[in-house]
Amino acid sequence: MSQQQPTARSPRSIPSRAHRPRALAAAGALIVLPLATACSGGDGGKGADGGKAAPSVTAAPAAGVVAPAKVEVIAGLTGCKAKIRIDADELRQGLCHTKKADYLITTFPEERFKETWLEEARVYGGKYLVGTRWVVSVKPALLESFRAKLGGTIRELRGIGPKPGGR
């Protein structure tokens, strides 16, 4: 009789314990980041299309350096050195702290990850500066100055539920 040898498992078939915290951190960022930025307030302005993406794209001179998106490059263009909070396969996120504001820079390896992130952030509402494979979450008063430095589009995402002061 022959003995059967146990088959070797592929190391990719079971997620390692080392990857679980990264996956949880990425999932948590999808939930917490939009909530945190939604609390930063807004100017109440609406786009002509009822609050969807504003068609205000600019080609900032330094923005060519940004693609492909890197947290550190975007942070440098905005005048800070980012502290990396999340470094996962789906996204990288850095926190910037300056005299004017604290803000988050999130980059994505593929455009589809950015669009998924924005779709999840939609439930919280708020305004974001969005570029190719990157999103900057900063208080609305600074969005235009950041857009001048980075390019991109200012997108206003509608939250869920009734509008303040409305019926």
Characterise the protein shown here.
With 167 residues, the protein is α+β, with helices and mostly antiparallel strands. Helices cover 28% and strands 22% of the residues. The protein is built from 4 helices and 6 strands; from the N terminus they run H-H-E-E-E-H-E-E-H-E. The protein has helices spanning 19-38, 71-78, 111-121, 143-150; strands spanning 83-87, 92-97, 102-107, 124-131, 134-137, 153-159. A 6-stranded antiparallel β-sheet has the order 1-2-3-5-4-6, sandwiched between helices. The chain starts with 18 loop residues before the first helix and ends in an 8-residue tail after the last strand. Mean pLDDT is 73; it is low at 7-17, 19-59 and 63-67.
Give me the oligomer status.
Answer: single chain
* Uncertain stretches: 7-17, 19-59, 63-67
In N-to-C order, the SSE pattern is HHEEEHEEHE
Rounded to an integer in angstroms, the radius of gyration calculated over CA atoms is 19 Å
- Strand order in the largest sheet: 1-2-3-5-4-6
- Beta-strand fraction estimate: 15-25%
Helix content: 25-40%
Helices and strands: which structural class? alpha+beta
Q: Please work out how many helical segments DSSP would assign.
A: 4
- Largest sheet, described in full? 6 strands, antiparallel
Kindly state the number of beta strands: 6
Shape: globular
* Mean pLDDT rating: 73
N/C terminus separation: 79 Å
